[in-house]
Amino acid sequence: MSEKPTYEELSRKLQEYEEVFQDLSKLRKAEEALQNSEKKYRCLVESLERDYILYSHDMDGNFTYLSPSVVNVLGYSQDEFMGHYADYITDSPINKDVEEHTSAGLRGEKQEPYEAEFWHKNGTRIHLRVTEVPLLDDNGNVLGIEGIVQDITKLKQAEVDRESAIKKLEKALSEIKTLRGILPLCSFCKKIRDDKGYWEQVDVYINKYSEADISHSVCPECLKKHYPDWE
Description:
Elements lengths: L6 H45 E7 L4 E4 L3 H5 L3 H4 L16 H9 L7 E6 L5 E12 L5 E10 L1 H28 L11 E2 L5 E2 L1 H8 L10 H7 L5
Antiparallel strand pairs: 1-2, 1-5, 3-4, 4-5, 6-7
């Protein structure tokens, strides 16, 4: 018949179990932290694949590396786009400084981010923000350029839409201000003088300086005066 464990033995076993449970708890928390990190990393990678391209090119401007995300941003496969960067730039004025930035980078000079416009494979224009640095060997000699480009086409379109909305609002406010001011009105013919000194019919003036539509009718008093037989 086995002997019953002593109090000290039970206490020691209990302490061992507690240590095991603590280790399991730490392991579970570590696994959860790793899963959260993996989720954050996956979201970052997915964002990069959607809006960014990593690349490098040699001293002649020919790409030596392109991230697979080039197909998501510009529609080309890696093999299709593996040429000279100048083959894909549009005729947009914003591209006039691309060669200057590239030449400076190939001289080993650090460049501020700049914008460029490239052709998408489907023929549309893609606005890119370019950030690049010289690619150096162990001795500090420039081997080429490496960088990252971000698709900012939607951001640029949003800026254009915002500017358009501001101009429309300014125009509307200007029209409201014009119509709320003191209007020179002829006491006889009832024409209005505009800010250029020209006299115009009231309906023409309102139509020109507002978005109101004019429809002609006859008031009851004029109807009796001019059309007495009208019932």
